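Example 3.
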Amino acid sequence: MNCTDFLSQLTDYFDGQISPELLEEVRTHLGECSHCTVVLNTTRQTIEVYKGNEIYAISDDLRERLHSAIMDKCLASKR
Amino acid sequence: MPAIQSPGTEEIHPDVALVERAKGGDTAAFEQLVRQYERQIFRVAQHITQNREDAEDITQDAFLKAYEKLDQFQGNSKFSTWLVRIAVNESLMRLRKRKTSKTVSMDEDVQTEEGSIPRDFAEWRPNPEQIYDQNELGNILRKTIQGLPPGFRTVFTLRDIENLSTEETAEALGLSVPAVKSRLLRARLQLRERLSRYFGHKEGQPA
């Protein structure tokens, strides 16, 4: 497995949807390639930092306003 | 590929009953669905459009459309996936309106090679407490995701922020599973590359 092959497996690797044979190859490659190890670790960090920080939090006020507006529009539409 | 669930073993999602009641004219049931998903729909719209006022309008329009078209919802997908699909379409339409000269679709910008070949190989680990206050970190994350092409931003939002499965994301975006996977990989790699500029060389780590 080379670095390009590794990258093509990265999404399935994160999803845990990788066959045992390929997983073994990925692990072997990671053992030999410090660059891909960094890419793996920092891609994981990237996902985690976005998951862990709600960057567009909605305030209670906005949510209530939005909720009322949605219901007003829907009830006025009489589907 | 997940196997198609056989009838009988499938757990019935609680939304199914609410949708049935709403179809029958029970507005309280529909309101419960709105409560359940308004935050998510707003977040999705804001991630795609990067604009709060647009996200507010889109959230209202998406629920209105869902309400009006409820009879067309066949239950082949989850109600939430159907709703996300409506919101994504509304959001992309809004982006198209905003930049009149340029088309915006899920097929756009996929030719870009940026970030698809990693260039930065410094280890980093964002440590918000020490390095950034929460505000500054939020700004970095917003600025970074804003720089992604809309097609990549949308896939990343649904998979990694809203935790939809690959199959649900494909359904919500009208893309194939391999197309979702390839866009997700490139979205993640581009974000990684951009975040490395902020986090890559802190605390005296070697480059």
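The interface with chain B takes residues 7-8, 10-12, 15, 34-35, 38-39, 41-43, 45-47, 49-51, 53-56, 58, 62-63, 66-67, 69-71, 73-75, 77, 79 of chain A (CB under 8 Å). Residues 29 and 58 of chain A are 43 Å apart (CA to CA).
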